[in-house]
Amino acid sequence: MDTSKALKTVTTLCSKKEYCRQEIRQKLEKWEIAEKDIDTILEFLQKNNFINEQRYAQFYARDKFRFNKWGKQKISLMLKQKEIAPDFISQALSELDKEAYEQTCLQLFRQKQLKFKEKKDIQNTLRLVRFGLSRGFDYDTIRRCLDLLKAENHSAFSENTRDDVWDE
Fold it and tell me: pTM of this prediction?
């Protein structure tokens, strides 16, 4: 593919969806565009606001939180892999609604809890902690959600549950 066709193609792509520099660079490299032409194309795209790393980070964080129900740590890690500036990442994460963030974690825990066959408090709590961490939620949020879940549902997270009760 020649440079002018590549430029036209990526401008069309960028006008339809948000892309970061790294994603466009990968596409251009895949199309075997020369390195100096890649830099020129990326500069053109950035100058004409086809790509904007800050805007990309905001959309990415909002979409991954809303649709994939990812936590801030996972979103941050993925944005770092896409070579987004740390300032843009922290700004995008700070724009996430704190109450909705905690409610999402709590909702995920409620859904996960329904899948538990055993009523063993410690094992289920550890499963939920691992699940929350794998989704990218920080430990403080996980702890608060576990406390809320415990208050909601004493039977599943009762401190008085004994493992030997089932053996009697």
Answer: 0.84
